[in-house]
Design goal:
about 100 residues, alpha+beta, Arc Repressor Mutant, subunit A, two-stranded antiparallel ribbon, 5 helices, 2 strands, globular
Length: about 100
């Protein structure tokens, strides 16, 4: 895969949820609005809004603050879905199995 992150190469698919996870992992130091997440993940806002309930319900993101009317979110590393493990896996420097 050209210009693919290790995370995307490992999972070998580009579903919207994985694109969002990939973006949040790569930018974990900052919080982002939903518009920023959609743009950074390379998906439409409509697609993000369609999957957002699943992302939020599973605790993948946590709201951090509000800037004007926009609510900001970060990756929830303490999520029961194992986001901390996914982050560790994505940052691991081993070559993915093909």
């Amino acid at each position: 895969m050209e210009n693919a992150t290790l995370f995307m190469e490992f999972f070998g698919t580009k579903t919207p949820v994985l694109k969002v996870l990939d973006f949040l992992i790569d930018n974990e130091a900052f919080d982002h609005s939903k518009s920023d997440i959609a743009r950074g993940a390379g998906i439409s806002r409509a697609t993000l809004f369609n999957i957002w309930k699943v992302i939020e319900r599973n605790g993948v993101v946590v709201a951090t603050r509000e800037v004007g009317r926009a609510r900001m979110y970060k990756l929830n590393k303490k999520a029961p879905c194992g986001c901390k493990s996914v982050v560790a896996l994505a940052k691991h420097r081993m070559v993915p199995i093909r």
